[in-house]
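Worked example 2:
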Amino acid sequence: DLVALGTIADLSPLLGSNRILVKHGIDVLRKTERIGLKILIREAGLDLGEIDTYEIGFILAPRLNAMGRIHHAISSLRLLCTRDFRQAVELSKKLNLKNTERQDLTAGSYEQARRMVLGKVDFPKALIIASQEWHEGIIGLVAGRLVEEFYRPAIVLSLGEKVSKGSVRSIPGFNIIQSLREFEEYFIDLGGHPAAAGFSIETVKIEEFKKDFLQTVEKKIGADLLCPFLDIDAEIELHAINQNFYNRLSKLSPFGMGNPEPLFLARNLEVLESRLVGKEKSHLKLKVKDKNSNPFEAIGFGLGLKEEILQLIQKKEPLDCVFKISENTWQEQKILQLKMIDIKAS
């Protein structure tokens, strides 16, 4: 169970032996006797028997990691090791509170970072922004969100009086650690991989590094690299999607880093119903069909914030949709659902 948890939380590729360990580790996790994990799963509102890579990667791991990001990871370790019920409850509540604090810190810092980016006169091919107010434990999350929104490499720095910490996220096709190693003389320490990196740097050297790095990036990154794309696995008609198809698809799991869920494209879909859902009305709930299919429930996380998609739906014209297929449990019934990733006019 801990092997599966750690492999997914560390974003290790789910290939080869990793995939085997995670697949069997999830089976063990669903039956775990670790009281700390059971309480953490309960506090997160999850069903132990339904735990999969998504629940680990997006719900449990952030809670365990939050302590190390903004406090000390010892509480997470104690939760995983404890055999005492009361201690498990106390530690689980502590992790949930720290995770909420981490979310608030990240949201506030991201909004500041976003305003900095949008306030730039020139829009460079890589983003480098810094602040004394940002906690070094969340700058990687801020960098990741900047890459999602602006689709270019992002370096976010937590400024210190003498030494500053930097966290970096990149886009497909641009090896960030290789590029940063060309400027190794600036760093106190540097580590990472092609998609992400971290470093320490003397604060007085930041401006010089920024100038040199951006000059290099302007030469290395072509306009085509800054165009987001979706790697679609297959085009499909909705009437071909049924429980048997989903069961066969599930044999490719566990999905995650290095082994992503298959991505499908369906054309000329009719939207029968649409509404915004979620606390901030940021998610888009749909009911869609093609000319030969029964209606399918669909959810687009975050798509409710995309004005161009909302306008398309209001026009009531046929749409091309890119999605993943999931199984949703509602009132003890399992229903296939489309997880919308993008929507365009047909």
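DSSP finds eleven helices and eleven strands in the chain. The chain has a mean pLDDT of 93.
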